[in-house]
């Protein structure tokens, strides 16, 4: 389902003071359900209420990020909130037809234990770790952090890859002392169901101890390059309005949690309320965006070039606002 409105035009003034008609259009937006979409809920609600400078058409939040690959490539949507490495993959697949305009979500992985034997990454030596995301960002992140702490992911620990968070939850429920690396807001939901489950650490902390030149970047906002070139003023307004939406998210937890539940991103408003501060919703643009994202993609590339589409994105991948 798409909430859409008619295209429109506005007035601008050129350098000679002459009034010009500035072409505008409805901006079609997609986002993956989960933390990647959380910073967008206030903007979506404002759009539905007619309280935005731009006119937006929001697609229903998707559970599969790959759902945006073809629509971005073919021009069916203009802007999307997607996983960071998927953005690089789309860039390479389309030969540079998308650009990143913002980092919108930092790391959401937590190390959890149903017990009290692990208090640092080094304590994981000889342990079994349950995790999801084999062959994707979670795996590369876990391997990098283990390596940075002197542990070989294939020799020093036993990583058991679960097919999904439901399988991981069953492992945590059935095994005393179970250890896992899992994402928010799932960790918050699991903690409500499993007595004694504790968060050992936020993996952002572990990352920053071994790499202070980048951050774990879970999600980004991408735009079709053609759209960015044709509607630069509308794109700037979107970035401003998205930034305001993120600021609202950070300072109005209760109201945002209600919207997150309303849009089905998290089933429970109570879980959304507890998890939101732990999901690291941000809006990094320009140099802050590039420094955080480029270093993270380099870590992924060094482990497996296919993780970012075969090659590191070039300078034009990063949109300068």
TrEMBL record:
Pathway: Quinol/quinone metabolism; menaquinone biosynthesis
Pfam families: VitK2_biosynth (PF02621)
Keywords, in A-Z order: Lyase, Menaquinone biosynthesis
Keyword Nucleotidyltransferase: no
Transmembrane helix found in the keyword field: no
Coiled coil ranges: none
One annotated GO biological process: menaquinone biosynthetic process
InterPro entries from the UniProt entry: Menaquinone_biosynth, UCP027386_ABC_sbc_TM0202
MF (Gene Ontology): lyase activity
Listed name of the protein: Sulfonate/nitrate/taurine transport system substrate-binding protein
């Amino acid at each position: 389902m798409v909430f859409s409105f008619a295209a429109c035009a506005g007035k601008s003034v050129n350098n000679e003071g002459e009034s010009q008609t500035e072409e505008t259009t409805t901006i079609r937006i997609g986002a993956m359900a989960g933390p990647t979409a959380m910073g967008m809920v206030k903007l979506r609600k404002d759009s539905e209420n007619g309280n935005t400078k731009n006119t937006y058409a929001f697609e229903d939040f998707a559970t599969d990020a790959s759902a945006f690959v073809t629509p971005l490539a073919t021009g069916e949507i203009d802007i999307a909130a997607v996983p960071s490495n998927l953005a690089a993959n789309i860039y390479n697949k389309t030969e540079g037809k998308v650009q990143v305009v913002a980092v919108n979500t930092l790391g959401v992985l937590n190390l959890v234990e149903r017990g009290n034997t692990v208090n640092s990454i080094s304590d994981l030596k000889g342990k079994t770790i349950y995790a999801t995301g084999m062959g994707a960002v979670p795996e590369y992140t876990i391997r990098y952090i283990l390596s940075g702490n002197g542990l070989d992911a294939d020799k020093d620990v036993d990583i058991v890859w679960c097919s999904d968070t439901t399988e991981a939850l069953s492992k945590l429920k059935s095994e005393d002392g179970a250890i896992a690396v899992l994402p928010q807001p799932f960790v918050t939901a699991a903690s409500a169901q499993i007595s004694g489950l504790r968060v050992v650490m936020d993996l952002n902390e572990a990352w920053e101890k071994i790499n202070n030149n980048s951050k774990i970047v879970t999600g980004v906002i991408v735009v079709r390059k053609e759209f960015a070139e044709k509607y630069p003023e509308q794109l700037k307004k979107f970035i401003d309005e998205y930034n305001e939406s993120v600021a609202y998210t950070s300072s109005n937890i209760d109201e945002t949690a209600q919207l997150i539940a309303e849009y089905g991103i998290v089933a429970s408003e109570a879980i959304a309320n507890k998890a939101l501060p732990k999901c690291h919703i941000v809006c990094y643009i320009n140099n802050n965006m590039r420094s955080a994202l480029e270093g993270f993609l380099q870590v992924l590339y060094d482990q497996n070039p296919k993780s970012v589409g075969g090659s590191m994105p070039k300078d034009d991948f990063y949109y300068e606002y």
